[in-house]
């Protein structure tokens, strides 16, 4: 059985933004749905594990990735239905997320502006329920199509099925590693009503979707390093959610600590970047590897020397321990270990 673009001992270093040395036992680039079915059948015959990679912006790959790595390059955007107020789109999983944001804005389909410049593919977006500046994927999500890695069967997941939470979904839980997301359906507005609730956007009065996107890009670029120049995986730690009583107690000592109470008022989200910075770690790069919290944004862990993932994770654990010792709060990595 022939598979297009099948490679053995495939170098993955340039396929992920953290740039750790990594080699896949086998890899295949998938541009058509039929390619995916063929690839999965090939791996199943050989009892090989299968994992998927998009733009590699939210993962930490191991030195050797066993089995078959599927590089998702499925493309296409299709309008399913539209009214005077809304439009539903079916977007292939391999489409670049930032490209989609720009494309939708140009078509006068609104709701994605705050998510501009988030790296990765559309297929990766539901896995961690991507979010930025007061907007999350789940706000515009309708459903997704995915292929089961073991059986090859396709299944549709509703928003309820996905079990979205803060940087969470069922695909980071009980279904982790079981599915390849081939398409996502989104519902966008045809009327521009910007969400300006988040701090850096609060003083804006954008005249257009493009203007808001331009500002979001400027904000992100002002504090986030370009992975092409300084390897990184974006925000490396999720913002911890702690009991509101604990948060208020800490605010008595640290009055400036950002605290965002949850809707039920029982818990609060705390800014992990603030905790790391207050622990004195922003710009604290390890002498031997250069790994450390970025000088302009402590939440981003940079890997300038492109060293092994084991060293990146060791440094991350060291940072987390320092934060826990100081504040009594555990912070956990957002990128997933691959596979």
TrEMBL record:
PROSITE patterns: FAD_PCMH (PS51387)
Function per UniProt: Cell wall formation.
Top-level division of the source organism's lineage: Bacteria
Name of the protein described by the UniProt record: UDP-N-acetylenolpyruvoylglucosamine reductase
Catalytic residues (UniProt): 167, 235 (proton donor), 334
Entry similarity comment: Belongs to the MurB family.
GO cellular component: cytosol
The entry's keywords: Cell cycle, Cell division, Cell shape, Cell wall biogenesis/degradation, Cytoplasm, FAD, Flavoprotein, NADP, Oxidoreductase, Peptidoglycan synthesis
Source taxonomy: Bacteria, Pseudomonadati, Pseudomonadota, Gammaproteobacteria, Oceanospirillales
Domain FAD-binding PCMH-type: from-to ranges: 19-191
Reaction(s) this enzyme catalyzes, per UniProt: UDP-N-acetyl-alpha-D-muramate + NADP(+) = UDP-N-acetyl-3-O-(1-carboxyvinyl)-alpha-D-glucosamine + NADPH + H(+)
GO molecular function, one term: FAD binding
Organism: Salinispirillum sp. LH 10-3-1
Residues passing through the membrane, by range: none
Gene Ontology biological-process entries: cell division; cell wall organization; peptidoglycan biosynthetic process; regulation of cell shape
Broad class of enzyme this protein falls into: oxidoreductase
Cellular location(s): Cytoplasm
Gene3D superfamilies, per database record: 3.30.465.10, UDP-N-acetylenolpyruvoylglucosamine reductase, C-terminal domain, Uridine Diphospho-n-acetylenolpyruvylglucosamine Reductase, domain 2
Cofactor(s) needed: FAD
NCBIfam families membership: murB (TIGR00179), PRK00046.1 (NF000755)
Pathway info: Cell wall biogenesis; peptidoglycan biosynthesis
EC id: 1.3.1.98
């Amino acid at each position: 059985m022939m598979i297009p673009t099948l490679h053995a001992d495939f170098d993955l270093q340039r396929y992920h933004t953290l740039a750790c040395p990594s080699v896949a036992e086998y890899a295949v680039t998938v541009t058509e749905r039929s390619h995916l079915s063929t690839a999965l059948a090939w791996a199943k015959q050989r009892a090989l594990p299968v994992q998927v990679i998009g733009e590699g912006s939210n993962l930490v790959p191991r030195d050797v990735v066993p089995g078959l790595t599927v590089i998702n390059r499925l493309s296409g955007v299709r309008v399913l239905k539209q009214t005077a107020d809304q439009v539903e789109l079916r977007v292939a999983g391999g489409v670049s997320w930032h490209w989609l944001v720009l494309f939708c804005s140009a078509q006068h389909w609104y709701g994605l502006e705050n998510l501009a410049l988030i790296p990765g593919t559309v297929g990766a977006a539901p896995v961690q329920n991507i979010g930025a500046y007061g907007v999350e994927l789940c706000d515009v999500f309708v459903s997704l199509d995915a292929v089961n890695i073991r059986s090859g069967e396709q299944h549709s997941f509703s928003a309820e099925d996905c079990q979205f939470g803060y940087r969470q979904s069922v695909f980071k839980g009980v279904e982790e590693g079981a599915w390849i997301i081939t398409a996502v359906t989104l519902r966008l507005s045809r009327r521009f009503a910007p969400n300006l609730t988040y701090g850096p956007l609060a003083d804006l009065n954008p005249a257009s979707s493009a203007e808001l996107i331009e500002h979001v890009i400027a904000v992100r670029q002002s504090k986030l390093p370009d992975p092409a120049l300084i390897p990184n995986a974006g925000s490396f730690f999720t913002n911890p959610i702690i009991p509101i009583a604990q948060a208020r107690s800490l605010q008595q000592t640290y009055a400036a600590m950002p605290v965002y109470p949850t809707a039920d008022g029982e818990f609060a989200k705390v800014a992990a970047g603030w905790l790391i910075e207050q622990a004195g770690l922003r710009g604290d790069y390890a002498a031997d590897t250069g790994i450390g919290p970025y000088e302009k944004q402590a939440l981003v862990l940079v890997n300038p020397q492109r060293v092994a993932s084991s060293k990146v994770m060791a440094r991350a654990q060291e940072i987390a321990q320092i934060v826990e010792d100081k504040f009594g709060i555990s912070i956990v990595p957002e990128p997933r270990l691959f596979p």
